[in-house]
């Protein structure tokens, strides 16, 4: 970690005379505990609330600040004539606050509508993917884990962005391609399989289209990829093959009527069988206070061993400062999976402060 941060500091210092450098940041200080839960006795798992799947942010019956607390810095170096370099470093409590690069890419504005980018970025599968770590940017404690379950959330490649309009509608798009090779995938290695697991997504190609007008916002996304996996160095086989192809489809529809708002997201992954997730949430702004409710669901019909779980949540956000918000949220998880129970049933409480600077 020290070497990475030293290299970043050297790189920034060397560029100060050539670029306009802008540094912004965000942080979340969150705490929580499981109030009650079944756990998964057959796997020796105590009552647990799995708040964030990819990085295995898990609460137990003891109060803890580690699972979801984090701090991030984003550096944007404008080199002029449309060229810039962006880097984002995030230190998470779930990873012992070991700082890692989440973003590192070059961006070039071709013209007022088109931008080309290359490097490491967040995989734009979901509505909240691009700003998932910035808790201040959304109303809940976190986007619902039933939806945001995937073991791969970054990719290395290239993408082409478009920003424009069609009539009265604002239009944005993103076409991307690349791959990701996670030599020690945390979710699979530490939680699901409990053995060193290398996860590879290659031949990734996808697209996103967003439309907004007045009170309505729509987002459509599609991605396809080839999946390979190694457990303890041994390739996993699916129907005798060492790879499988996946296709992801998603739609988000958000309506904001001023004080009252409704947020929805629906996704399907076709990976030799359908895996469906959805989220519906609503809230009402009363000055600086926003109470909300949310329901999310995960359903993978895998023959005799399905994975099914859902979450009901209720919470309040209080914007007590122009750059900070306090949140508290109660979650009730029902895990209806058969043998492959994820974390069992649970009821939990979490609270925290999100800031941007």
TrEMBL record:
Domain Porin: 7-353
Signal peptide limits: 1-19
Domain of life: Bacteria
Family matches, as InterPro entries: Gram_neg_porin_domain, Porin_dom_sf
Keywords attached to this entry: Signal
Pfam families (UniProt xref): Porin_4
Membrane-spanning segments: none
Protein's UniProt name: Porin
């Amino acid at each position: 970690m020290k070497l990475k941060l030293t290299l970043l500091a050297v790189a920034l210092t060397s560029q100060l005379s050539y670029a306009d450098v802008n540094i912004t940041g965000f942080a979340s200080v969150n705490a929580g505990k499981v109030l009650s839960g079944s756990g998964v006795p057959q796997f020796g798992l105590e009552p647990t609330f799995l708040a964030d799947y990819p990085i295995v942010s898990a609460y137990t019956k003891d109060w803890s600040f580690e699972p979801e607390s984090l701090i991030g810095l984003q550096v944007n170096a404008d080199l002029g004539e449309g060229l810039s370099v962006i880097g984002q470093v995030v230190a998470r409590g779930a990873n012992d606050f070991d700082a890692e690069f989440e973003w590192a890419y070059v961006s070039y504005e071709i013209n007022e509508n088109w931008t080309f980018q290359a490097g490491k970025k967040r995989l734009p599968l979901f509505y909240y993917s691009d700003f998932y770590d910035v808790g201040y940017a959304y109303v809940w404690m976190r986007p619902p884990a039933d939806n945001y379950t995937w073991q791969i959330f970054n990719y290395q490649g290239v993408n082409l962005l478009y920003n424009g309009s069609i009539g009265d509608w604002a239009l944005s798009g993103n076409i991307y391609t690349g791959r990701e090779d996670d030599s020690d995938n945390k979710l699979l290695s530490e939680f699901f399989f409990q053995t060193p697991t290398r996860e590879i997504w290659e031949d990734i190609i996808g697209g996103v289209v967003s439309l907004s007008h007045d009170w309505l916002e729509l987002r459509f996304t599609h991605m396809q990829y080839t999946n390979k996996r190694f457990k303890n160095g041994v390739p996993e086989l699916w129907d005798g093959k060492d790879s499988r192809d996946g296709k992801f489809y998603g739609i988000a529809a958000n309506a904001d009527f001023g004080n009252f708002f409704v947020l929805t997201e629906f996704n399907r992954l076709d990976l030799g069988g359908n895996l469906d997730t959805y989220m519906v949430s609503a809230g009402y702004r009363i000055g600086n206070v926003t109470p909300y409710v949310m329901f999310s669901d995960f359903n993978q019909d895998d023959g005799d061993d399905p994975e099914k779980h859902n979450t009901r949540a209720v919470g309040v956000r209080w914007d007590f400062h122009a750059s900070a918000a306090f949140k508290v949220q109660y979650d009730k998880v029902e895990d209806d999976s058969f043998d492959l129970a994820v974390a069992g049933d649970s009821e939990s409480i979490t609270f925290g402060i999100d800031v941007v600077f």
